[in-house]
Amino acid sequence: MAIKKQLHIFKMVSYKKIYFRADASAQIGYGHFIRTLAIADMLKSEFDCTFFTVSPTEYQVGEMTKVCNYAALNTDTALSEFLDLLKGDEIVVLDNYFYTDDYFRSILQKGCKLVIVGPMSNRHYDVDMLVYGIPQDDIKFTKAERTKLYYGFDYAFIRREFFKCENHKTRNNGIVVCLGGADPLRLTNKILQRLVNIEYPETINVIAGDKVFIDESLNPFIRQYKNLAASQIVELFDAYRLAILSASTITTEALSRGIPVIAGYYADNQVDFYNTLVDHDYICGLDDIRKNNLDELTTELLDTISRKETYKFDVTSIQQRYIDAFKSLANEF
Question: Which residues partner with 114 through β-bridges?
């Protein structure tokens, strides 16, 4: 099969196989891909990991190459193509919202163990494991009795680079802005325009993917960083006093570094996480960024939040918790 020719080979070991399946694009963003690859990175020392994705970009290929084996799937046949690769002895990890219950059953009927990353609200899951790496006061999905559930910051979706020792240097005045790797709604530009309009006096650092639109007129006022590696994002979060982010994986990673966060949401699947963060005073909330005119973003507010004592969660045992959870699942074969 053509798929075998695309497999990027690492040294193979006799560990239990885990197949990770997540995509990224300008339409769906990079969140599913990044968080699932982060889980693979935490498990690769104990398992034989392979990552499957549709039509990966150069950036995705570079990130996967650092972690484990990978293979590209055809856009039109990805669902069936992936099923055909399964032998029944794999742990399968899926991360997206388009998979149906019938697709879940097809994987389970092959004898595989099935893990779902980021389960959706108002859906029932009869799978082997759910991973929900964000805190949630009110779980809005249901599960079968047999289904294991691991959730909260104890199982946060953060990349290995964020496990490094806490920064103890004095932070610089300035902001880090990131509204996702794709940002088809151009919300990054909306935030930046507001910061320029209020004449924010400090450095404005922007993390963006290749497809993120930023008006050229804003370039004199910002520092723009394209397709940063995780280690470079850690450096920015450690260097500055405030971040304006989307309520997604990037906010989890920012909180792990202790930088104060102002965040909002722009997708339905971000709302529950956003509400939990606001209710616990982990962030300063902007609500729905699509509808918000951002009048509350003033220099006074930005200065106040940047000086606020911020919530920071412990990352030291996250990797081991993931390893233990997947080893427990592997023992059920």
Answer: 92
Flag whether 311 is in a domain. Answer: no
Q: How do residues 186-245 score in pLDDT, each as one tens digit?
A: 999 999 999 999 999 999 999 998 789 999 999 999 999 998 999 999 999 999 999 999
Q: What is the pTM of this model?
A: 0.90
Of 170, 167, 160, the C-alpha closest to 253 is: 160
For residue 250, tell me if it sits in a domain.
Answer: yes
Task: Count the neighbouring beta carbons within 10 Å of the beta carbon of residue 140.
Answer: 11
Q: Which CB contacts under 8 angstroms, 24+ apart, belong to 22-26? A: 22/51, 22/53, 22/94, 22/95, 22/96, 22/117, 23/53, 23/54, 23/78, 23/96, 24/53, 24/56, 24/57, 24/60, 24/181, 24/182, 25/54, 25/55, 25/182, 26/182, 26/184, 26/211
Tell me the CATH number at 26: 3.40.50.11190
Same domain flag for 208 and 300 = yes
Whether residue 292 lies inside any domain: the answer is: yes
Question: Can you read off the two tokens belonging to residue 298?
Answer: 């003033």
At 96, list the tokens: 């997206």
Domain with residue 199: its CATH number is 3.40.50.2000
